[in-house]
Amino acid sequence: MRITIDARAADGPPTGIAWYVRTLLRALAESSAQHHYLLLRQRVDGAQPLVGDPRFEEVAAAPSGDLWLEFNLEPILQDFAADVYHSPLGAPAVVCPAATVMTVHDVIPRVMPEVVDDAFRQYFNDRLAPGLRWCDHLIAVSRHTAHDLTHLYGIGPDSISVVPEAAPAEHVRAVAEANTDSVLASLGVCRPYLLYVGAVEARKNVAGLLDAFGILAGKGNDLVHLVLVGAARDNSSELARRLRQFTANDHVLWLEEVSPPELCSIYSGATAFVFPSLYEGFGLPVLEAMSHGLPVIVSRVSSLPELVGEAGMLINPYDVGELASAMGAVASRPALRADLGTRSARRATHFTPAAMAGGTLGAYRNALEVRASR
What is the dihedral sign for C-alpha 260, 168, 8, 228? Predict the structure, then answer.
C-alpha cells in the first residue's frame, strides 16, 4: 500500500495527539510490512525526520486549517499515487482520491459539551461529526469510543476498527534508582507521593482529586505527598488558581511541564498513580503508569475500566470519600501496592506498538475494500 498520513500534530506541542502520531509512526516503521508512506508535516526544511526509514517520505503542509487540505490534499495524494489517506485527528478533505481513514479519540464535545470551548465545539459539530460518515473507515482507540460512535452517530460496527494505543517509548523507559533520586531532588519532589499526570482541567476531575487529598491529609495521612504533572487548559484558570493555593501546602507539588526523561523518573519514584477523570477516550497516562509497574486508582467510567481491567482500583469519580479511601489504602498497605503493581505491569504488556501497527494496517485494508466497492 501507498499510505499518506497527516503527521502535522507530531510537530506541535507534546499533547496526547502528538504522542499518538509519533508512537504510531514508530510502530509502523518497526513493522516488517513493506508499505510506502508520505507524511504531511508542518515543515520539512531543517527538521529532523520523524522516521529514519527509507519507506517514509515527508512533505510540508500548512500547520493547521482544513481550508489548506481542501485545496491541496488532492494533488498531493495524486502525485504520490496514494491508496490510503489517514487523518489521526481531523476529518479528511471532502474530495479525496484515496481511501480515507480517521482516528477518533473521543466524542467529548458531544457527551460533555460544557468542558470544551465554543470554538472547538462548533468545529466538532460542523466538521468532525459529518466527517465520521464520509470516511471509508474509522479507528477508535477503545471499545468505549467505538460504542459512542455507534450509539450517538449511528456508525455501524463494521465501519470501525478498535485499535488501542501504545505507550510512547520516551515515557516508559526504565530508570536507575540513583538517576530517579537525582531527578526528583532537582524538581523538589518528596517521597512518598501519589502521582497524577494529565491536563489540569475540569474533565480530569482535578478538583475532586484535591478534595480527596485534603480528606486524606485530614485523617492523619500527612506523610504522603501529592504530585501533579500537566499544564492548565485555557478554560481552567479558576482550577489552576485553586491548585496554586494547594501548592502552598508543602505536601502538594504542581509541575506544569517536564521533559520525557524527567517524567520517567517521576513515574518510577511514585507510590501510586491516581486518575479520577470523568471521561476518557483511552487514558494514555494510565497506560504509562502501568508500564512502570505503578498501582493505579482510576474512575470506573468511560474507557478506563477497559484499559485497566482487573489490574487497578476502580472508584466512583463523583464520590470524593471513596477516592480518598482508595488513596489511603494504597498509601498505607505495602502488600496491596505490590499486588496492584504486579498486575499493572502485566496488564500493560497487552498494549504494544506491534498491536497498534497491526490494527492500523488492518483498518487501512478495510478502507480500501470499502472504497473499491463503491
Answer: negative
